[in-house]
Design goal:
alpha+beta, four-stranded antiparallel beta sheet
């Protein structure tokens, strides 16, 4: 299924569990490749993690293309860009989740099988190994995926607006 736990060293010396999985293990050429990152804190204490700039620069990713070429994720060019902090606070027995769009750093334009190694650059973390199949371009599939992504964006925007209203009502 692509789910592989990895240990993450936290700031307060408690261990959290990170898991990564591809939203789809098979995509049409041109489709976004999305990886769900989830960090669980099973501890009775809060955990503070630094995921790096923009909440993902401390997540190491290496893609092995169908031709065997190994492509590591390169650091983002910070010139002329705003970078947000990647500090994450996870309350006891809670989780943090984010979705990475791997197409931001890699191209998946060759049909075939890719191997993705992903993990938090903590020095101790065991990376996960994910397998992705890229099939020939399918215009109908791309249209469906685009519609699903638009729906997700609208749902997230609605939830964000609800949270903003709730916060304003507390003032």
């Amino acid at each position: 299924s692509g789910l592989a736990p990895a240990s993450v060293k936290a700031e307060n010396a408690t261990d959290s569990l990170a898991s990564y999985h591809l939203e789809k293990s098979s995509v049409s050429r041109g489709e976004p490749v999305l990886v769900d990152v989830r960090i669980d804190n099973p501890s009775p204490l809060s955990v503070n993690l630094d995921l790096g700039g923009n909440g993902n620069e401390n997540i190491g990713i290496v893609v092995v293309r169908p031709d065997g070429q190994r492509v590591p994720r390169l650091p983002d060019d910070q010139r002329n860009r705003i970078t947000f902090f990647g500090a994450v606070h996870i309350d006891p027995r809670q989780s943090y989740r984010e979705v990475l769009v791997l197409n931001e750093w890699f191209t998946f334009d060759d049909v075939g099988n890719y191997t993705i190694t992903i993990g938090i650059n903590s020095g101790r973390a065991s990376p996960a190994i994910l397998h992705l199949e890229v099939k020939s371009r399918d215009a109908m599939q791309l249209a469906t995926v685009c519609a699903e992504l638009v729906s997700r964006i609208q749902d997230n925007r609605s939830r964000s607006e609800e949270h903003t209203s709730e916060l304003q009502s507390l003032r």
